[in-house]
Amino acid sequence: MSDISLSSLGAKVVVAASSDENHPPENIIDGNTNTFWMSTGMFPQEFIIRFAEPTMVSVVTVDSYNVKHLKIEKNTTQSASQFEFGTEKEFENTEGHLQSNALSLSGSSATHLRFIITRGYDHFVSVHRVSVQP
Amino acid sequence: MVKLRARCLVVGDAAVGKTALSHLFNSDGSLFQKNYSMTTGVELLMKCVNIPDTSDSVELYILDSAGKEALVDGCEKMWGEPSLLCLVFDLTNKQSFTNCSRWMERVRVCNKGFHIPGVLVGNKSDLTSRREVEASAAQEWAQNQGLEYCETSAKEMENCDAPLRGLARAFHSLYHERREAIQNLSLG
């Protein structure tokens, strides 16, 4: 499943805390690490991915740059609210190449995933790809 | 179009004019408080600055923090991780300039190694006969600290929007620099 982009499966980014029209949040789920969404200042930063239908998620892989701490929340409702804690991770600083981190979510079903970047290694962070495995 | 957001910390000794400058900037020069009222905590002001010759803007969250020694510890907790620094002293008060080193140390402790664009502001430039700090000395110190330098008079509304406008531009350039670096990185 990680070979197929989330957007081609009907997923959408429904909320993103930063906007640079050259680097829109859709770049997170297009399956391509050459394109990215960039935060435009201050922390926390967040984005929410909505799946087309309830989806089993056991591992979330995030390709990013300069992210220091990421928290993932999830829900099983139709609206992007009432999230519960999923997982969190401190990322290593990888100067000069992208970070790639797998976070496990204990194989539960979700309709939304909420990604909260609480800290960064710089003023700005980028997220290049999010993929999920059932 | 890019909308940037920056947390801009305004610090310096008490009564140097931090609040007067912040309010003047925030109100586009329409608000100068004639009566002094000491800031005892951290006041938050928000101002959106358009970057000339672009469609980009920077939302500045201006944290006007109390300068009085006894109140600083309490205020530091509210600084968070600043994106920008505006360090103000009074050109007619040498001690307020000397104390700038201590302010820099305090800021360094909370910024955790981030590069923070900053400006040193010598305020009250209208009081020429009482001046105690030469522009050259302030300029040199600022340069050593990696800060820009400018002089303002909140009372005469001279140059008051220069420091924060300059910081907004610096943050904008920093964003473009970082974005380009990430772009090159992601293309391998």
From TrEMBL, chain A:
<keyword id="KW-0479">Metal-binding</keyword>
<dbReference type="Pfam" id="PF00754">
    <property type="entry name" value="F5_F8_type_C"/>
</dbReference>
<dbReference type="GO" id="GO:0030992">
    <property type="term" value="C:intraciliary transport particle B"/>
</dbReference>
<feature type="domain" description="F5/8 type C">
    <location>
        <begin position="16"/>
        <end position="121"/>
    </location>
</feature>
<keyword id="KW-0969">Cilium</keyword>
<dbReference type="InterPro" id="IPR008979">
    <property type="entry name" value="Galactose-bd-like_sf"/>
</dbReference>
<protein>
    <recommendedName>
        <fullName>Intraflagellar transport protein 25 homolog</fullName>
    </recommendedName>
</protein>
<dbReference type="GO" id="GO:0005813">
    <property type="term" value="C:centrosome"/>
</dbReference>
<comment type="function">
    <text>Component of the IFT complex B required for sonic hedgehog/SHH signaling. May mediate transport of SHH components: required for the export of SMO and PTCH1 receptors out of the cilium and the accumulation of GLI2 at the ciliary tip in response to activation of the SHH pathway, suggesting it is involved in the dynamic transport of SHH signaling molecules within the cilium. Not required for ciliary assembly. Its role in intraflagellar transport is mainly seen in tissues rich in ciliated cells such as kidney and testis. Essential for male fertility, spermiogenesis and sperm flagella formation.</text>
</comment>
<keyword id="KW-0106">Calcium</keyword>
<dbReference type="InterPro" id="IPR033558">
    <property type="entry name" value="IFT25"/>
</dbReference>
<keyword id="KW-0966">Cell projection</keyword>
<comment type="subunit">
    <text>Component of the IFT complex B, at least composed of IFT20, IFT22, IFT25, IFT27, IFT46, IFT52, TRAF3IP1/IFT54, IFT57, IFT74, IFT80, IFT81, and IFT88. Interacts with IFT27. Interacts with IFT88.</text>
</comment>
<dbReference type="InterPro" id="IPR000421">
    <property type="entry name" value="FA58C"/>
</dbReference>
<dbReference type="GO" id="GO:0005929">
    <property type="term" value="C:cilium"/>
</dbReference>
<comment type="similarity">
    <text>Belongs to the IFT25 family.</text>
</comment>
<dbReference type="GO" id="GO:0042073">
    <property type="term" value="P:intraciliary transport"/>
</dbReference>
<dbReference type="GO" id="GO:0046872">
    <property type="term" value="F:metal ion binding"/>
</dbReference>
From TrEMBL, chain B:
<dbReference type="InterPro" id="IPR005225">
    <property type="entry name" value="Small_GTP-bd"/>
</dbReference>
<keyword id="KW-0966">Cell projection</keyword>
<dbReference type="GO" id="GO:1902908">
    <property type="term" value="P:regulation of melanosome transport"/>
</dbReference>
<dbReference type="GO" id="GO:0060271">
    <property type="term" value="P:cilium assembly"/>
</dbReference>
<keyword id="KW-0547">Nucleotide-binding</keyword>
<keyword id="KW-0282">Flagellum</keyword>
<dbReference type="Pfam" id="PF00071">
    <property type="entry name" value="Ras"/>
</dbReference>
<dbReference type="GO" id="GO:0001822">
    <property type="term" value="P:kidney development"/>
</dbReference>
<dbReference type="InterPro" id="IPR050209">
    <property type="entry name" value="Rab_GTPases_membrane_traffic"/>
</dbReference>
<keyword id="KW-0969">Cilium</keyword>
<dbReference type="InterPro" id="IPR027417">
    <property type="entry name" value="P-loop_NTPase"/>
</dbReference>
<protein>
    <submittedName>
        <fullName>Uncharacterized protein</fullName>
    </submittedName>
</protein>
<keyword id="KW-0342">GTP-binding</keyword>
<dbReference type="InterPro" id="IPR001806">
    <property type="entry name" value="Small_GTPase"/>
</dbReference>
<dbReference type="GO" id="GO:0031514">
    <property type="term" value="C:motile cilium"/>
</dbReference>
<comment type="similarity">
    <text>Belongs to the small GTPase superfamily. Rab family.</text>
</comment>
<dbReference type="GO" id="GO:0005525">
    <property type="term" value="F:GTP binding"/>
</dbReference>
<dbReference type="GO" id="GO:0003924">
    <property type="term" value="F:GTPase activity"/>
</dbReference>
<dbReference type="GO" id="GO:0030990">
    <property type="term" value="C:intraciliary transport particle"/>
</dbReference>
